[in-house]
Amino acid sequence: MALLGPNFKNLTISSTLEINEISKKLQDSGREIFKFGLGQSPFPVPSILTEELKNCAHIKDYLDVTGLFELRQAVAAFHKERNRVDYSSENVLIGPGSKELLFQCQMVCDGVTVLPAPSWVSYAPQAKFLNKKLVWLKTNAQQEWHVSPDVLDNYCREESKKNKLLILNSPNNPSGTSHSNLQELARVARKNDLIVISDEIYAELDYEGSYRSISHYYPEGTIVSGGLSKWCGAGGWRLGTMVFPDQLVDIRNALRATSSETFTSVSAPIQYAAIKAFTCDHSQYLKKSRAILKHVASFVHRELVSVGINSVKPSGGFYLLCDFSEIFRNSNTILNDNDLCKKLLADTGVATLPGSDFGLNSEDKILRLAFVDFDGGKILAQLDSNYKLDNDCLEHYFPKIYNGINRLKNWTIKNK
Question: Hey, which residues does 225 pair with through a beta bridge?
Fold first, then answer.
């Protein structure tokens, strides 16, 4: 008989992966499903990377546990320019996706894991696996779902004797919004000697091409996490990066040791091909991707708000939060966000995720919607150099988004 530790009883798989599996089963059974649950990039991997992967497919040897030297050099140079910190190749770790590096970083760091509510679905379960104390800091729509410096400072004063690891994600999953108060948060982090992980996996998908990082204001205490899954469409390649300041070399060395005893090293062909991601010019690919995502985000936000669903307009990535609390405040059948998700899927085929998976109160009836159910490659090929899309193209190029949102709207009107 298998004996499970107390942290691993009643476990389920990550909700984002689970909703994808549920959606596929329903589709296989003949249901029309609008997959607004899993946030996978709709765009193809840039061809210069796929061609390089073919060229490197024969490379079979284990690489340095820290990562291929040439790739680490490229990542360090990329972040030296973007983050305005003098990183070297020794500051960089390459892992099998940023998720694994985030988990191992939580594992080696002593103290409390501090998360804004809402935050990405896997931060909190990882803390639970590690039996770490987890603290949620409340946010709200008026703050665009980002923690305020005052809330963070107040918590730090209350728990002044404990080490703390704060994880920030911007543009944010699940809200799609970007931090506007990073300088103030940096001041609080420095004052309270916090270690900050800046999860910048969506940073290249800011719709205006702006780059904002807490490392600009608090470089000595900030670890920058990134990878290829979102901006590069390469989720299945499983390549993540983590960049450390010189002041946190002990954490970097600890991760190097734990990596050597867990995943050993990332696939060699993937690492060689990934050099092109950090050294080649992808500006046209990114400008088109951002223009497409901004257009879809504007449509989805406008249509939801038109029927009374409260939502903050996204500024990057491919998510937004949908607040049904006013609509179903007095409902006898929809008591929480899980009820709402299940009924919406059963009645319309629209698959979403409950806000409680991201740390929000289940009774608030907030859902996360991912607007990536379209053929990004087809639209990239059609978009001209003006990066302009009009509303007439929505039904043609984004049929699942267009029809799914209309079903959601009609269902909302009917059930008000």
Answer: 199, 242
Give the pLDDT score at 21.
Answer: 80
Chain mean pLDDT for the chain? 93
Residue 9 corresponds to which amino acid? K
- What's at 217, amino acid-wise? Y
Rounded distance between C-alpha atoms, residue 298 and residue 337, angstroms: 24
pLDDT tens track for 319-341: 999 999 999 988 888 999 999 99
CATH topology of domain 12-44+283-415: Aspartate Aminotransferase, domain 1 (3.90.1150)
Give 15's pLDDT tier (boundaries 50, 70, 90). low
Element (H, E) at 291: helix 283-306
Q: How many CA atoms lie within 13 A of 228 on its CB side?
A: 27
What residue spans in the chain does CATH classification 3.90.1150.10 cover?
Answer: 12-44+283-415
CA–CA dist 126, 130 (Å, integer): 6
> Which residues touch 236 (CB under 8 Å, ≥6 apart)?
none
326's tokens: 């006013």
- Quote the pTM value: 0.94
Predicted confidence at residue 394, as pLDDT, reads 86
- Rounded distance between C-alpha atoms, residue 67 and residue 73, angstroms: 10
Q: Where are the alpha helices (DSSP H) in 12-68?
A: 15-28, 47-55
Q: Report how far residue 191's alpha carbon sits from residue 214's, in angstroms, rounded to the nearest whole number.
A: 14
Class of domain 47-279: alpha beta
The span from the CA of 209 to the CA of 283, in Å, is 10
Longest pairwise C-alpha distance within the chain: 63
**Which residues have CB under 8 Å from 342's CB, separation 6+?**
none
173: confidence class by pLDDT, cuts 50, 70, 90: very high
DSSP conformational letter for 310: B
What is the length of the chain? 416
The CATH 3.40.640.10 domain(s) of the chain lie at 47-279
Q: How far apart are CA 270 and CA 239, in angstroms?
A: 8
Expressed in angstroms, the distance from the first to the final Cα of the chain is 50
- Does residue 18 register a pLDDT over 80? no
Nearest-angstrom CA–CA distance, 275 and 255: 22
pLDDT digits (tens, 9 = 90+) for 210-226: 999 999 999 999 999 99
Per-residue pLDDT, averaged over 44-64, amounts to 97
| Spatial contact of 385 and 367, defined as CB atoms under 8 Å apart | no
